[in-house]
């Protein structure tokens, strides 16, 4: 639930508006986001929109060119670069400020964060199934919280530093399966930065992508609708024109003929 609040809520819905949600789902997304205990939704969305618009520049809040530690957590431990503040003021978040439900959540965010992220989850284990208070506090306030935070941060760090780039080799974001496992599908980052409006954040659908699975379920019951995806033809053209050749279907690999002349081989045919 914590992960879904970040991946399905703050990221795919509130930041990228990659699908539309009816009131029950919007309430669920805000509840799950509160459970994550991160920054206010307004700050999260603004930072992420700046990140996409000015990725890997001084205006990027967690610029991966400043190293793993900075992009992972260091950016949260220091003052923002002046460019982040300046460019952040140019980002339009009127869709959030004009949403009464989000405005209510923003107004009482600190209370939602304290109660939903820490207090209520800590009370449930001892009162419902006899867990010790020590284990409950340790599990909820430390182990669960640390894993959740680092899973989110890994998208900004590891998925911007390590992995292949089948869609656009000109950018830092990469396909990182380990991050996708922990971050519920957010590690297909080369694809996501190439097609940020895709609600799946990946071409691969439900493979290591629990968020997409849940959004598809909500679509079936009518709570999520107008889920955006690019056409297969567009993805193919982008992968062929700008990818690093590692796409399983449309990639190419470098080979050498008998005279040691370099040539391009269609990897999908050679397979």
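^ structure tokens above, recovered residues below v
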């Amino acid at each position: 639930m914590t992960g879904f609040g970040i991946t399905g809520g703050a990221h795919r819905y509130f930041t990228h508006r990659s699908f539309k949600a009816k009131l029950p789902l919007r309430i669920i997304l805000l509840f799950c986001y509160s459970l994550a205990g991160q920054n206010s939704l307004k700050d999260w969305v603004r930072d992420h929109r700046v990140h996409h618009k000015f990725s890997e520049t001084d205006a990027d809040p967690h610029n991966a060119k400043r190293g793993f530690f900075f992009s992972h957590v260091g950016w949260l431990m220091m003052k923002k670069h002046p460019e982040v503040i300046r460019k952040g003021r140019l980002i339009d978040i009127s869709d959030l400020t004009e949403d009464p439900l989000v405005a209510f959540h923003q107004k009482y965010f600190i209370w939602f964060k304290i109660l939903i992220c820490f207090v209520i989850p800590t009370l449930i284990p001892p009162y419902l199934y006899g867990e010790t208070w020590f284990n409950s506090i340790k599990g909820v306030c430390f182990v669960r919280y640390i894993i959740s935070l680092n899973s989110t941060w890994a998208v900004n760090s590891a998925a911007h530093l390590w992995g292949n780039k089948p869609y656009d080799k000109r950018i830092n974001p990469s396909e990182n399966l380990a991050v996708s496992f922990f971050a519920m599908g957010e590690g297909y980052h080369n694809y996501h930065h190439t097609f940020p409006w895709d609600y799946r954040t990946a071409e691969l659908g439900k493979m290591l992508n629990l968020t997409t699975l849940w959004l598809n379920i909500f679509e079936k019951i009518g709570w999520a609708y107008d889920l955006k995806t690019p056409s297969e033809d567009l993805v193919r053209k982008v992968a062929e024109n700008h990818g690093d050749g590692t796409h399983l279907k449309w990639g190419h690999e470098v080979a050498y003929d008998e005279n040691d002349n370099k040539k391009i081989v269609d990897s999908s045919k050679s397979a």
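Confidence is low (pLDDT under 50) at residues 254-271.
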